[in-house]
């Protein structure tokens, strides 16, 4: 089993002014002259962490991380009142392109998991000439049936105890309707206690169901109210709007990227982003390589997931990028 690479520190970082009063945090680590790779985090609203650098061989890659609008170290933060009207998939794609130009990168490998896989696909389909390879994990195509599976009851059949906690902030009269909409009202309540309680419930539902085995450390890590407010509000904003994508757009437009080498890594027991989405993507993209990990859920940190992700970046490290 391939492990993560050892921890490293960035050799450069900064804040990129992208307009709309927004500044995006970015950093670079690894080999300044190496093959460029950009890591797109999940959520949306999750932010990056030092762990994200470790999926790449630092001797071979110039590793680029960024915190998407409104979260992580980007400003303004959602907890500080950032404007969600200027936070859409189109804005994020434009930010990625702005950062690519700033760093003077011609082409790069794009790595994304969960929402990061959604954004990676959308970015690549709009800018295929900028992408050398794709490494995707925990596929999320942002179809309505995927939202309903996870937020409107079906996943609760697998985690009834955690589902009960997720329902707790929602008034009983609203529990039979669209819970994404119910949570939108709660998360944007003028009462900060109601908003924070809803954010913590939303975030805890995801962190409690993301790995094959319980991970109390992950639940505790995401229980910070500032993180939870950004994570829940941004996710809810995107999911209410279908990710600002047309239904099934990412499969419909797959022809734009079928020439790009791709590895898809998917946990068999992923409750957050069920394996059917990875399967549908692979079937539409015959040249992709799909690894279904039988002893894994959604988390990128599970051993079998790590193994195939690192194996993929190692395989692509030797491919000339002209970056």
The pLDDT mean sits at 97
Q: What is the strand tally?
A: 8
- Strands ordered across the widest β-sheet: 1-2-4-3-5-6-7-8
Strand content: 15-25%
User: C-alpha Rg, in Å?
Assistant: 19 Å
Summarize the SSE layout with pairings.
Elements: E1 12-19, E2 22-30, E3 35-40, E4 61-66, H1 89-102, E5 108-113, H2 115-126, E6 131-137, H3 144-151, H4 160-167, H5 179-187, H6 192-208, H7 216-221, H8 225-240, H9 249-252, E7 262-267, H10 275-284, E8 289-293, H11 303-317
Parallel strand pairs: 3-4, 3-5, 5-6, 6-7, 7-8
Antiparallel strand pairs: 1-2, 2-4
Brief summary of the model shown:
It is built from eleven helices and eight strands. By secondary structure, it is of the alpha/beta class.
Describe the structure.
With 323 residues, the protein is of the alpha/beta class. The chain has two domains: 12-144 and 244-317, Rossmann fold (3-Layer(aba) Sandwich), CATH 3.40.50; 145-242, no CATH class. Helices cover 37% and strands 16% of the residues. It has eleven helices and eight strands. It has helices at 89-102, 115-126, 144-151, 160-167, 179-187, 192-208, 216-221, 225-240, 249-252, 275-284, 303-317, and strands spanning 12-19, 22-30, 35-40, 61-66, 108-113, 131-137, 262-267, 289-293. The chain has an eight-stranded mixed β-sheet with strand order 1-2-4-3-5-6-7-8, sandwiched between helices.
Characteristic key phrases:
alpha/beta, 16% strand, 8-stranded mixed β-sheet, 37% helix, 323 residues, Rossmann fold, 8 strands
